What does this fold into?
Amino acid sequence: MRILWLSHWFPYPPDNGARLRTYHLMRHLARRHEVALLAFAERPPEPSHREALASVCRVLGVWPRPPFRRRSLRSVAGYLAPMPRYLVDTYSPAMAQAVAHQVQTGWPQAIVASEISPATGMSRYALEVSGIPRIAEDLEMLAFQDGRRRARGLRQRLSWELRWWKATHYIRRLLRTFAGYTVASQEERDCLTRIAPSAPAPAIVPNGVDVAAFEGDFGPPEPDTLVFAGALSFHLNFEAMAYFLAEVYPRILARRPGVTLRITGRTEGVPLHRLPRRPGVVFTGYVEDVRPVVARSRVSIAPLLRGGGTRLKVLEAMALGTPVVATSKGAEGIEAEPGRDLWIADDPAAFAEAVLRLLEDDGLYRRLRENGRRLVRERYDWRIIGRRFDDFLTACVEGGGDDGGDGRW
It folds into this structure.
C-alpha cells in the first residue's frame, strides 16, 4: 500500500511517547508498504534526523507547529464553532493544502492521522479530503474525561462541560466518516465506545518497546536509587512529581535517608521552584540515551494521577529489568498482574511501602525484574504490535470506509 501519515510530531529522534509510537509503527509498515510523512515540528528537523527517517518514510513536508493562543481572535471565535476551539485556532492552511494536493495526485491509498487525543487535530486535515480510507491512530479521550470529572467550581465545570460537548461532537463526526481508528488501551476503548456507541469498535494497538534495543548490559543497578524517566515540561509529569515529592518521598526518606531520585528530561522553562525541595533529588536534564540511567536504578516510579494512553517509560523500565511502582493511572493500559509484573499503589503510604520493599527485599526485586522483562518480550515488542497494526490497517483499506463526503462543517 501507499500510506500518507499525518503527524503532530516530527518522529525523529524518537525520544518521547508520541514520537516513539509514530516512529516504530511507521518503521514496521515500511517493511511492506510505502510511507510518506507530513508533519508539524517544534523546530526545523536537523538534516541528520531527516536522513535517519529515509529508511522509514519519505518526508514530504514539515511545518512549524501552530501554537494554541487562548486569547487570539480566532480562538475566541472558536467558542462558536461546533468543534474544540484549539482546532480552530491551530488550523494550518499549509498542512490542509499539502494533504489535499497529495490526495489529488492519486498517490496515497490511505491516510493515517496520528491523533494522540483530538487536541492534535491531525484528523481534521484528513476530514477535508474524500475518496480515500482514513484511519485515526491512537485516539484518546480519557484525559478529557478526567479533566471533566475533576473540575471544581461553577465556572470550571461549565468550561469543561463545553469542552466535553465539543470534543465528543467532533469525535462522533470523525468516526462516522473514517474507515477505522485505534486506541492504546482497553480503558480508552471503553471510553470511546460510550461516546460513540454506534461506531465500529476500535482496534487496541498498545504502546510497545523495541525489545532488541533494550537487551544488553547497561551497568548494574545502584542501591537506594529511584528514577522517573519523564520530562517535567509535560504538565501531567510535573503534577505527578509534585505529588510524589510532597506525599510519598518523605516517607521513603524517613526510613532510607540515603535514597537518590533521578528525574530525567529537559527542565528549561519548567517552574522547578514550585516543586517541594527534598534531599537526594537529581535533575539530569535531557539524556540522549536514557537506558543506562533507568537500568542502573533500583526502582522506576510512575506516580501519574491523570491522563490517557499507555506509559512507554513503564514498559521501557520493565524491558530493562528495572521494577516499576506505579499508580493505577500510571500502569493504565498495561496487561500486567500487580505484585507479579509490577507494583500498583494509589495511596501515598502504600506507594512508599512498595518502593521500600523493592529497595530492601532482593527476592521481590528479582521476581518483578524477571517477570516484567518476560511480559514485555511476550506482549509489548513493537514487532508484535506492528504486525497487529498492519493487519488492521490493511483490513480498513480493503474495506473502504469512506462516506464520499469531504467532511466539512
The longest strand covers residues 34-41.
